[in-house]
Amino acid sequence: MSEPVLQLNGISKHFGMTKALSNMSISLLAGEVHAIVGENGAGKSTMIKIMTGIHQPTSGAIKVDGATRVIAGPQAARDAGIAAIYQEPMVFPDLDVAENIFIGDKSSGILTRPAAQRKRARALIERIGIKLDPSRIASGLTLAEQQAVEIARALSQDVRVLIMDEPTASLSAHEAEQLRKIAKTLAGQGVAVVYISHRLEEIFEIADCVTVIRDGSHISTKPIAEVTSDGMIAEMVGREVGNYFAKAASTATDEVIFEVRNLTLDGVFEDISFDLHKGEVLCMAGLVGARRTDVALALFGVTPPTSGTVKYKGQTTHFTTPRDAIEAGIAYVSEDRRKLGLAMPMAIKSNVSLATLNDFLSPLGLLDRAEEDKVAHHFSDRLNIRTPDVETPVGMLSGGNQQKVMLAKWLNLNPELLIFDEPTRGIDIGAKAEVHDLIRTFVAEGGAALVISSDLPEVLAMGDRILVMREGHQMGILDHTEATQKAVMMQATGQMQEAV
Amino acid sequence: MTHFTKLTTAAALLLGTAGAAWADGHSVSLTPGEEINMVLLPKFLGILVFDQANEGAQEAHAELGNIGELLFVGPTPENSTAGQIEIMTTSATQGQGAVMISNNAGDQIVPSAVAAQAAGTRVVTWDSPIPSGEGEDVFVAQVDFASMGIVMADMAHSILGGAGQMAVLSATPDASNQNAWIAAMEVALEDEKYAGIELVDIVYGDDQAEVSYNRALALVDQYPDLGVIMSPTTVGIQAAAKAMQDEGLCDKVRVSGLGLPSEMVSYTMNGCAPEFALWDFRDLGYLTYYTAYGLASGQMTGEIGETFNAGRMGDFTIEEDPGRPGSSRILMGPFTVYTAENVEAASN
Amino acid sequence: MLSRVPPQTLRILALLLVLFAVLLFFSTQVPNYLNGRLFNRISSSVAIMALIACGQTLVILTRNIDLSIGSTVGFVAFATGSLITNNPDIPPLVLATYSVLLGACFGVVNGLLVAYARIPSIIVTLGTMALFRSALVEYSDAKSITTNNLPTWLVEFPNTQLFTIGTFQFRAAFVVAVLVVFAVHIALTRLRPARKIYAVGSNPEAAEMAGINTKLVVFFTFVLAGALAGLAGFMFLARFGTITVVAGLGFELKSVASAVVGGVNIFGGSGSVIGALIGAILVDLIDMSLVRWQLVSEFWREAVLGSLILLSVAADAILMRRLVKWRVAREKKQTKSGVSS
């Protein structure tokens, strides 16, 4: 067997008292897709940051082509042929595609030659196997396109180790499939691909071998043939996972809380109609570009619809700002925690009380810190937020725990209708199950939930009914009794239409 | 030279009144050798005329044999108002005997000046007074505002040959000394003698070269028949003269006002600014120091009507300020009009 | 045709439209307004600000700001003035180089503190603004530089007419400033290292990940801005002759205004120095026209200037949005007709 391209030998990394990694070893071979799985907080990110030179290990050695090497910074990593792409791509929004690809390029002299650059960019993009105009400005690209730009950038620098960190978490099924194809292709071209994902089915599709890590330690590395889904999950969580995919009993009642008819936003979506019952979870499924988030934002008053009617608790309403919707008892838990959901540098308790500050005023009009503390502790316990204390800045928490803080923030409003946009995106299986439980508890107590999710098993497990959208159109509503992965995917990809 | 003579006459008249007071036998002669710490506080540091005032004050300091300290401290240009207030406050807490300030903070200085007085520090203003007179013991005025108005009108009259358009390029819109001089000039212009002179506009160059330069050019563009730009500020007159010279306009539009001979000499010689005026800032500093020393040492009361001897400059009397009723001033005078005949000698 | 124009160029077109509108408006309000003289006035006066706004733009592109730029101009003007006063035989090019290098030194101070000591630029330059100004007060010892001490070549340089078109005079200072701005523009758009300035401002994290030495880039822009301020200081000395300690006071905010009016994103990442140049022209034009507009009294001028700047920024933004919309609509139409045919 050939020499590993990149090897971590007994790497440990400590941040103050916290041990993020201890005695981690891993070998990456050229031409192999090496999957790494583990719960959030298991140490995957730290490991990537050590490979890409952002962090320096506290102890242990890194070997490139068998020779010990210090990766002092991102540039050194690039020089060693190591590149990473992330769930949230790192592009320069103000530059065009070609400029983005060749931003770190040193090979072609001091002058930029836009025409030649675009030509080279086009070749790289073709090698990845997608269509993208190199002169487009990056701020207008979809996430999938941005990732493609990043991969092209890595390719332009003769990448030998490509680390893909949750690359498909925000992609539609079709896009994700394409990305997996790219990963395979690159491995076929001799690149060592590190593939990190929470979608286990992906791993079985593309990985050659799987490494499981937990709590900063290496648990196992096995060829894919020797791995089973249950075994992998058991190793990740260190315990048997219960009924993650089990369907909970429906608590839906006959009382219609939300009635939407022919909701249309010109040029974005049209003729969306559904009822939402008290005690019900209605899931919205669809591929990226299906415009589900746009529907949610229209319902929440962010971008008011151009036509259609919305009845909330029997009354026709026109929310024109989120404030209107919040006052009516509707909460929207956003997909993008960083941008719309949480103030990262602020403490957990401040985030929890942010939307309801008026409830925390003492008679003098000052903030009642004790009350704030109490409420934050309450949610911290109820939602099982893992944190030393409620003063911890949210930015320091893992993704799953951030998601729980976000939930706490909105539950604190005592809403009757919760709109969840990708509530479990990028969080680990254990946390996913907890979030599902929380949503279930919420509707069982008399609420109603509208859940947007791209995770099909999740949609099938959560939804009492499933509304499928495709490119701004409502394709149908499936009852959970008739819903299968295949049925949903048929509608989401528009194959139903052809069949009819 | 006619103006020069007239001014000398006016000065003689002024000195005459002072002399009369002295003849009454009330003139205070200051006893030297006391220990009084004093602060000379300019609008801000780095301006030549303020340094000249400091030279005059240092001269008086030595002459009076004050064993205390004379500090020359001031704010930086971008921090003038706040800096002056801070220095005033600090001086009071340090127990300085007197603060001599060329006020650039308008009435904002009042609270700190009042506090300083309460702490036993005498507040003497020079060059630019406290508009309301509050917190101020006495203002040492470089020149009588009314006579300043007449001199400016006379210079315009001479440059324009009796008739033509004049515009004013001042410092900032709220500079109290410039505003008072312009008002005095407007009063003077009502006289029959100046009937041919039309004051067309007043603009402000913020005492900055680049703004003043552009304002001067804008005036020329706006008033095609403009004959003279009157700028009662050393920055404005210089910038206006440079602008006229740069654009080759000196034969049409002349510049006059208050200027420093060393900065204006070339423009006076080439005819861009044939006449301008200024008083001696060394003398102003010298007289201010004598006044502050007298007050702080308790040898003078500061009451209106009091006369004292200010060394080489002779006797001066404290009087009510005609421009600010209820406040008192000491009038220095005279000032010099510079022309091609005397500017070169003065510029060295 | 317009559909091929990149957004930056669209923005400049929109700015030019606003500039045209301002000219048109004042020509109805002010007698003897539209003529060669107006061009000569604005062009000579904008020469200095154009250089400063250009430097400021570079800094703003990296998500920073340089508030010390006015103090740098003042100090360099004074130091250059005293150098030539004491050594009148220094050749022109050496003197100009001295100004540029001295300005760059101030940029080094800012750059080190911002990029390597990681202090936010607004704090650093707020400090150095006062520091450089105080250094000038100390260094000048209350003396002023005066025109008669300067060599003739220096004083005459900015107003030397290089060529005239009709009644439009193209003077040395203006031509030099425009050439410098265009040189910087070409460098920004065509030099590979300059691309990094946009990258750092556009997404600093991604820039770090892409292996760009973001610290060096930020440091470098401050040094460049300092050098441009140095050159502006040289021009300032030549134009005004008399330099006191207040020289360049307020230039920092005027340069930021020029850049922002010129379409430079205050949050970094996008904008062009050509835009900043037009922005400087627009601000100067409005300022100068207001002096001649009898309807507005002195006391209201600042307020009207502020409102007009806001108005032109708003007009520019709206025009820009319209143009982009129109372009998108056209593109759609074209692709549709392309499909059907």
Provide a quick synopsis of the model.
Chain B is an alpha/beta fold and 348 residues long. Chain B has 11 helices and 15 strands. Chains B and C meet through α2, β7, α7, α8 and α9 of B and α2, α5, α10 and α12 of C.
Description of the molecule:
The complex is a heterotrimer of chains A (500), B (348) and C (341). With 500 residues, chain A is α/β, with parallel strands linked by helices. Helix content of chain A is 34%, strand content 24%. Chain A has helices at 44-51, 74-79, 97-101, 114-128, 143-156, 173-188, 200-206, 229-237, 292-299, 322-328, 337-341, 348-353, 369-382, 399-411, 429-444, 456-462, 485-492, 495-499; strands at residues 6-15, 18-28, 33-37, 59-64, 67-68, 82-86, 161-165, 192-196, 209-214, 217-223, 256-265, 269-277, 281-285, 307-312, 315-317, 330-333, 417-421, 448-452, 465-470, 473-479. In chain A, helix 4 (114-128) crosses helix 5 (143-156). The model of chain A is unreliable at 240-244 (pLDDT under 50). Chain B has 2 domains: 2-143 and 280-334, Rossmann fold (3-Layer(aba) Sandwich); 145-278, Rossmann fold. In chain B, 43% of the residues lie in helices and 18% in strands. Chain B has 11 helices and 15 strands. Chain B has helices at residues 2-23, 48-63, 80-94, 110-118, 145-160, 176-189, 209-222, 234-246, 261-269, 281-296, 343-347; strands spanning 38-41, 70-72, 98-101, 122-126, 138-141, 164-170, 197-204, 226-231, 254-257, 276-278, 307-309, 315-317, 319-320, 328-331, 336-338. In chain B, helix 6 (176-189) links the parallel strand 6 and strand 7 (197-204). In chain B, helix 2 (48-63) packs across helix 10 (281-296) and helix 3 runs parallel beside helix 4 (110-118). The longest helix of chain B is centred in the first third of the chain and has 22 residues, at 2-23. Chain B is elongated. Chain C has 341 residues and is an all-alpha fold. Chain C has one domain (36-274). Helices cover 74% and strands 3% of the residues of chain C. Chain C is built from 13 helices and 2 strands. In chain C, strand 1 and strand 2 form a beta hairpin. The chains are: A alpha/beta (500), B alpha/beta (348), C mainly alpha (341). Chains in contact: A-C, B-C. The interface between B and C is large, with 38 and 41 residues.
